[in-house]
């Protein structure tokens, strides 16, 4: 997963959430296979946030059908995302990522699994949500293992901040879910506090110890989760629902 973060910037007119600093843009050269995937599949499967026309994306037209839309923010190299999309053919699964080779690799994985319900968005998910997703349009949003920015002075760069959570909540349909996961204890506590303070959301597992959701058996183990286990860190899941 690419580990995105969020900060608030202002211009002379009004405060806004700006895309250029909402993630860490990693460089990287594509493999031959990833480049082939771009050439063969991107015109049909992918779009670039910066090139989208004004207004909400027409998801039924893009996917070729009416179905609930689920957005995953930060799909990384696509191993988990491709499996999740393949396991939920009833969903229109949208993956937002900034890392070009990662999107190329995701298309390769999707091709291998025969996935047909996946579309890719290259660019900042904050701009996508703000400018190109209508209120109430999403059945779910997933944010798995975002950049923890472990140093205290960098906590303001974490993507899970009140403004971001409010934005996600506004784009969820009633009953839609915001599913988060992290292997950093302090970040998990911040996620819990920020999401619990959003009046449009409720914790589905508020009655469970700590308010944590049980680890869903359907969520594949990511490389970050594997590393956390080796390093002795416990992963936490949170699932909030749009009221």
From TrEMBL:
Question: Which EC number(s) does UniProt give?
Answer: 2.1.1.33
Pathway annotation from the record = tRNA modification; N(7)-methylguanine-tRNA biosynthesis
Q: Give the catalysed reaction(s), semicolon-separated.
A: guanosine(46) in tRNA + S-adenosyl-L-methionine = N(7)-methylguanosine(46) in tRNA + S-adenosyl-L-homocysteine
Per its UniProt entry, what is the enzyme's top EC class, as one word?
transferase
Q: Which NCBIfam families match?
A: tRNA (guanosine(46)-N7)-methyltransferase TrmB
Similarity annotation: Belongs to the class I-like SAM-binding methyltransferase superfamily. TrmB family.
Task: Describe the task this protein carries out.
Answer: Catalyzes the formation of N(7)-methylguanine at position 46 (m7G46) in tRNA.
Q: What's the protein name? A: tRNA (guanine-N(7)-)-methyltransferase
Q: Where does this protein come from, organism-wise?
A: Amycolatopsis sulphurea
């Amino acid at each position: 997963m690419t580990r995105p973060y969020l900060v608030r910037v202002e211009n002379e007119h009004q405060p806004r959430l700006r895309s250029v600093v909402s993630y860490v843009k990693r460089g990287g050269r594509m493999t031959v296979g990833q480049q082939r995937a771009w050439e063969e599949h991107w015109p049909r499967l992918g779009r670039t946030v910066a090139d989208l026309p004004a207004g909400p994306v027409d998801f039924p037209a893009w996917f070729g059908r009416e179905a609930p839309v689920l957005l995953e923010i930060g799909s990384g190299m696509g191993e988990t995302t491709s499996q999740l999309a393949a396991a939920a053919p009833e969903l229109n699964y949208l993956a937002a990522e900034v890392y070009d080779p990662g999107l190329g690799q995701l298309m390769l994985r999707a091709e291998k699994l025969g996935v047909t319900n996946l579309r890719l968005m290259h660019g900042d998910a904050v701009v996508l949500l703000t400018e190109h997703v209508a209120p109430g349009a999403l059945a779910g949003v997933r944010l798995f293992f975002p950049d923890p920015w472990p140093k205290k002075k960098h906590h303001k760069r974490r993507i899970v901040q009140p403004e971001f959570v409010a934005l996600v909540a506004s784009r969820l349909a009633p009953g839609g879910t915001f599913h988060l996961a992290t292997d950093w204890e302090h970040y998990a506590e911040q996620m819990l506090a920020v999401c619990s303070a959003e009046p449009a959301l409720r914790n589905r597992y508020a009655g469970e110890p700590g308010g944590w959701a049980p680890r869903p058996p359907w969520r594949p183990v990511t490389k970050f989760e594997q590393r956390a286990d080796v390093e002795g860190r416990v992963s936490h899941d949170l699932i909030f629902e749009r009221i």
